[in-house]
Each structure stands twice: as structure tokens, then as C-alpha cells.
Amino acid sequence: MEFITKSSESIEDTPLKVLRQTRSSESDLVDSWLSETEEVESAKHGVVDLKISPNGLFGEVEVNLSQDLEHHTFSAYEAIFNALHNFPDYQLLRIWNYVPQILAASENPDFKNNYEAFNSGRFKAFKKYFGPQFNTSMMPSASAVGSHSNCLRIEFLAVKSEITFLENKEQTAARNYSEKYGQRPPLFSRGAIYKNLQQTLLISSGTASVVGEDSIYSDLYDQLNQSILNLRILGSQFNLKRYAIDYGFALEDAVLLRTYYKNKEDEDFLRKYLKKLVSPDCKLSFMQADICRDELLVEIEAIFVKKGEFEQNGKEKYTLNDVGKIRTESFELHIAEHCNLRCRDCCNISPLNPQKFMSVAEIEEICKFLKDTIQPDLFKIAGGEPTLHPKIDEIIRVIKHYEIASQIRVVSNGLLVHRMSEYFWQEIDQLTISNYKSAPVKQRSLDLIKEKAKQYGFVTNVKYVEQFNEIFVKEPFSDPTEIQRIYDDCWMRHRCHIIRNGRFYKCTRAAYMDDYLGILKIDPQLEHSTYSEADGLDITAPDFKEKALHYLNNKKPLASCRYCLGVSGSLRDNVQLSKKEIKEMVE
């Protein structure tokens, strides 16, 4: 199947047959699943309508309620399983449930509301289908929201590809919910990863402000941020490591974000806030609906595409846009290369770097260069620790003046945010805080961040970091296959573009590789250059754009990949190095 959104491709541009599509109005496409061939079989099995392609099967069933909801839910799911019995090569991947009056009191006195009755009917159908061991089976990804019709509607996707079903390490698996939330638990996994043609997709379930099994927060702002945090955790490298997956999905990888909201008056805020969170290529859609718990105000489902795999049919990821610039996802500047922490496995070897601040003049020259050549969706002010820079306000002013990106994000450890000026809070669009286990941010600083975010409307992402990936190796890799695998799984080549010492890099680690090798007393010299020279482009080259397009689209690993684990390194506890340990490393 081919998955597209209106942001990525027009459905009119393809001859392939539609399996399923969603529109927010008659003309506004939200998303569409297309067959990989023009051959699509339509079939009807009882009350279930199917569209079948060689690798994907979509089905739907709609039942008018005439008896109790538990009975109708059981019958609808039984019909789905009976239909799928005719297609043994297909496995349920995703289910969308639209439950009439989901929070209304149930006609059956055994259930508090219709959602509990729905869960009981679904539970019984799954138990019958999977047999005695069904509770240990991984359930499909799913969502269930309210509808105002008198019809129970269920849509589902089944695929032939191998599926990895996911749970969120911070949430109780739904099938293990206690009776506090009903006699029968809801049966779904938090998400699923599978290979779709040349795409690796992560499809999340409906995600709300739930930690463990309990709803948290009562206001929309906090619920929305917790829901987003849950999506981040689900796709994070640290969560996926539990499934022997070496890569991760960031919110920037989302190509679809569908938001269900309870109260009509919240829609305007949600549209403005979520737009700041995602790539311009991410399709946002909104639907007013009751959520499955009365206290929940918002629920989000998402589809993510693994970095570098969204381009299909031989298309290049990097091209010149309408104004002749190279469109990229992000660009970052390390305005301070040193840090006030000494984290082991620091990505940019900050504990080993001498104190170094970029000058405002240097940053302005880089901005002038970017203004004419590269248009990132996101401009990241990073380090080291950027809040150490005494002129950070002036730097923000320069970056905003050149209008290089629509969003400016500061990436910090959060320890010095109490020193930031009102201008800083007012002008940033996003703030990412790495809240390290070995050096946690004080609660008053976290409260300050939340207060300022509400006041000025910037987006926050406070990540509690318990572990780091091991990054650099002392003995270089020699197996080309292993080096290629590490490179292919590494998202940094798309998300960590940087200019350092007059050279443009697709990866920050390549920019620091000569420094790292020098610290290890390893000669960085290659046949005709050093590692960092070989892996970066001179920004003064007259044909820079042409070279940069080839460089960014090139699937060949960098020279620095021989000494780097990418994002595939083993996880180690986040610890602070002692001054003695650092001294021993650099001497």
C-alpha cells in the first residue's frame, strides 16, 4: 500500500486505487491508503465490506443499534474475525471504533456507560477468536471515540507484513487495566510498527493524558502536553530498544496527527499549538468527539514515518524549493561548545571541549549564508549548553531577523533557565529540556518553564533522561555492511545539520570527529584530508548548492561513521564524569 497525506502528495496524481481515505470535508483530504497496484478486489462478508490489495486489506462494518451495545459490539467483531478467516495471510494492524454516545449511561445495569459495554463486547469477541491464550497476544493498535449517531461503526486495516506491537513504558498495557475502569479491559496496543513498501510506519493508538492506567491533569493545556509526551515516549529510541529496534521516531517524523477534542471552544487553541509542534509536512486534522473517559478533553492518534524512507518512487529527499533553497528539516548552531555538566556519552563531547562561544558576528554570517541557500523547518539553538552564552538574547534577535525558519527551538539542560530574560521567553517558539537523572532540574525551574510557556505560548518538551547511547568507539569498524546499517538507521543525518569551522555537515558528530580522535591520540588524517574535512562541505564553494544536494541525498556512510555507533549504541546510565576522569581522557 501507499500511504499519503494532502501535505505529501495529491491523491489525483496517482492512478492507484483508494483502499481507505479520510476527509475533513468534501474537498479536504486528511489521509489516504492506496493499493500498490490497480487491482483492488471489493468483497462483502456478511455485514463487513472489504477492499483487498496484495499487501493491505481495509474493512468496515456499521451496525444500527436495536439491542444493547455489548451484544452489537460482540456481533460486529465476530463478523470482522469471520471475514478475516478467509484471508489467513493478513493480520489486524489498526482498528478505528466510533461508539454511539460513548459516555452515556448504559441500558445494561452491569455497565456504568456505553464504553464499558463496548469493551465487554469487544473482549468477548477477542476471547472467542484468540482462544484461551488471547490475553497474552498483542492486540492491534486502536482508538475508540464517541459519535452522535445511532450506529456503531468499526473500520480496520490488516496487512501481510510483519508487525511489532508496542506498549508505552510509562503506561499500563490497556489489557491489564484494573476493574476500576470496567469489568472488562479495553483491548489494544499503544502502537504498531510495520514495513509498508519502502516505508517503516509507526501507527499509534488514540493517545490521551494517561500515566500508568490513570488519567492525570484536568485542564486542556496539561492534558495536551501529556498526550504529546506519551506519543514521544512511545516512539522514542529508549522505548523501542525494548523491542530490539535501534532507531526511534520523533514528533518531527509525524506525517499525520489526528486530534479528537471534547469541547468546541478548544479547537482554535489546539490548531495553533499543534502547528508549532510538527513538521510543515505533517497533516493536522481535528474532530470534535467525546473521549472514552469523562475527564479527558483531548486524544491524539499519529502516523510516523522512519527518517529517510518517506520518499517513494525514486524521489530525492532533498531538492531546491520554489525560491531556490534546499529544504531541510532542521539546522542547529552550537553557540556554546562547552557545558556546565559532564555527561558520559555526550553526543558532542562537550565535557571534553574547552570553553568556546560563537560570536554574534560569526552567527550573523552563518545566517546570511543560510538565508540564500538553506531553508530549514526548524532552527535549533544548542550546544554544549546554550544558556551559558552571555549574548543569547542578541543571538535570538539575529536569527529571527533573517527569518530562516518558522520555528526557533532552544535545546538545554534547564539548569540555568532561571537566568533567562523576559525577551528570551517571549521570542522562542520551542524549548526542549533534557532533564538528566544525574543532574535533575529543580522543581522551581520546571514550574517557571511551565508558567512562561502558558504566558507566551511556546511549546515545551521536558525529557527525563535516564540513559545515553554509547556513541563513539576507539577501534574503527571495518565491516562495510555494519557501517552501512548504522548509517541507515541513524536519524541524525536528517535532523542534525550544522555549520562548524566554515563547513556544513549533515551530522554533528562528524563536525567534532577530528577533535574526538585527537583526544584519543588517534591521527585523524586520511589519505587527502581529515575525517571532519572529508565529511563536511566548504560553505564558500561557488557550487555549494549542487554539492550539498548530492551530499545530503547520498546514501553512502560518512568517513566518521567508522568511529560512531549512530543511534544503535548500547544504553548506559546517564552519569556525570569526575574532573579526574576527564583529565585522564584529555591528557
TrEMBL record:
What's the protein name? Radical SAM core domain-containing protein
Q: Which InterPro entries match?
A: Aldolase_TIM (IPR013785), FkbO_Hyg5-like_N (IPR049368), Radical_SAM_PqqE_MftC-like (IPR050377), rSAM (IPR007197), rSAM_sf (IPR058240), RutC-like_sf (IPR035959)
Q: Membrane-spanning residues where?
A: none
Q: Which UniProt keywords apply?
A: Iron, Iron-sulfur, Metal-binding, S-adenosyl-L-methionine
Ranges of residues in domain Radical SAM core: 336-419
The coenzyme or cofactor needed here is: [4Fe-4S] cluster
Q: Where is the Chorismatase FkbO/Hyg5-like N-terminal domain?
A: 32-158
- Entry's CDD domains? Radical_SAM
A Pfam family it matches: Radical_SAM
